[in-house]
Amino acid sequence: MQHRSTICAENASTAPHNMVLVAAHNSDLQAAHACAHKTVLVCRPLEHCPGHRTNPTPEHDWDLVADNLIELADVLSCPLR
User: Is residue 58 predicted with pLDDT exceeding 90?
Assistant: First the structure.
């Protein structure tokens, strides 16, 4: 059985390696990487109260890592306004 992301790539008429998953959980990115997608981790260090950090650091060598979506936009040279 094909993974959903592979089916999405086929429906978009592209290869999985031309798609990217932006996620805040390392486990989601592991699944995307296994399907040959590019990966972007958004760490969100301020998501929870002080002392509670869900994913404070990347667990793998993802394609890009940012603390938040504004930082990711800066890295990708995407104007926000």
Answer: no
- Residue 21 · residue 34 · CB < 8 Å: no
Q: Is 4 exposed, middle or buried (0-12, 13-18, 19+ CB in 10 A)?
A: exposed
Give 52's Cβ-side CA count (13 Å radius): 3
Where are the chain's structural domains? 4-75
pLDDT given for residue 41 in this prediction = 94
In CATH, the number for domain 4-75 is: 3.40.50.1000
pLDDT of 10-54, one tens digit each? 777 888 888 999 998 898 999 899 989 999 999 887 766 666 656
Starting from the edge strand earliest in sequence, which strands make up the sheet with 20-23, in order? 20-23, 38-42, 64-66
